[in-house]
């Protein structure tokens, strides 16, 4: 069963770029990704650029409306994801708890709808 782990954090709470803490966090992500691959649960995973680089689109009356930034104003911003193949929610949550962002942000785990 596929699960999407969405990584949310407030930018001011995460390690700052180009610091020893940042390097440590990146190493944690690389080690975790290797663990996921070795356990056979890794499908995909990526970090996202800052929310200020986002463009949102809506189509109303067949007209596209573009807006800079994310759709919703929230304190926490979506910063990345992992797509995992796990036997059940319990296993997905066990792997999601290992994601470094869980220490200062939120990891939302959702089953993928298969049609």
Would you summarize the structure shown here?
With 115 residues, this protein is an alpha+beta fold.
Question: Which characteristics define this entry?
Answer:
36% strand; alpha+beta; Alpha-Beta Plaits; 115 residues
What does it look like?
About 25% of the residues lie in helices and about 35% in strands. By secondary structure, it is an alpha+beta fold. It has a single domain (about 1-110), classed as Dimeric alpha+beta barrel (Alpha-Beta Plaits), CATH 3.30.70. The strands form 2 sheets. It has a 4-stranded antiparallel sheet with strand order 2-5-1-6, covered by helices on one side. A two-stranded antiparallel ribbon has the order 3-4. It is globular. The mean pLDDT is about 95. This is YciI family protein.
How many structural domains does the protein architecture include?
1
Largest sheet: 4 strands, antiparallel
Q: Helix- and strand-based class?
A: alpha+beta
* CATH architecture heading: 2-Layer Sandwich
Summed up, the helix count is 2
Strand order of the largest sheet: 2-5-1-6
**CATH class category name:** Alpha Beta
Which helices and strands occur, and which strands form pairs?
Elements: E1 2-9, H1 20-39, E2 42-47, E3 55-60, E4 63-68, E5 77-85, H2 89-96, E6 106-111
